[in-house]
Amino acid sequence: QVQLVESGGGLVQPGGSVRLSCAASRSILSPNIMGWFRQAPGKQREAVATITPGGSTNYAESVKGRFTIARDGAKNTVYLQMNSLKPEDTAVYYCNLRVTTWGRATDYWGQGTQVTVSS
Questions:
Q1: I want to staple 20 with a disulfide (CB 3.0 to 4.6 A). Which of 3, 8, 41, 58 is the partner?
Q2: What percent of the chain has pLDDT over 90?
Q3: Which of these, 92, 96, 87, lies nearest to 113 by C-alpha position?
Q4: Which residue, 28, 49, 30, is CA-closest to 96?
Q5: Residue 6, SS3?
């Protein structure tokens, strides 16, 4: 089992910035991807950004150029730097770890952290 503990988030004004952090409880030796998802009220959870241990990243079109995902392998931590925030970025943000073992993927989730973009 792996626990993911998130921090960051809160209330921020449009155009502002916030950084989210997510720490895994232990090192992951199996192939894995870490990332951030978000879920706004009345909407489905969507992927925001993902990153591999090698540093390959993938972003949702809606956040490209504004959000940056980074990973610190030594600390088992993934970060999401969010700049130029818009009201439509308001959502609960969830950290995700997908571990693949023997061809089978297992997802672990953080508890979620609220980000509200409002003046």
A1: 8
A2: 85
A3: 92
A4: 49
A5: strand
Residue 31's pLDDT band (boundaries 50, 70, 90)?
A: confident
Amino acid letter at 39? Q
pLDDT, tens digit, 9 for 90 and up, residues 40-84: 999 999 999 999 999 999 999 999 999 999 999 888 899 999 999
Q: How far is CA 40 from the centre of its chain?
A: 14
Tokens (6 digits) for 80: 């999401």
C-alpha to C-alpha distance for 54 and 43, rounded to whole angstroms: 32
Task: Classify the phi-psi angles of 53: left when phi > 0, otherwise alpha if psi is within -120 to 50, otherwise beta.
Answer: alpha
Q: Give the largest Cα separation in the chain, rounded.
A: 48
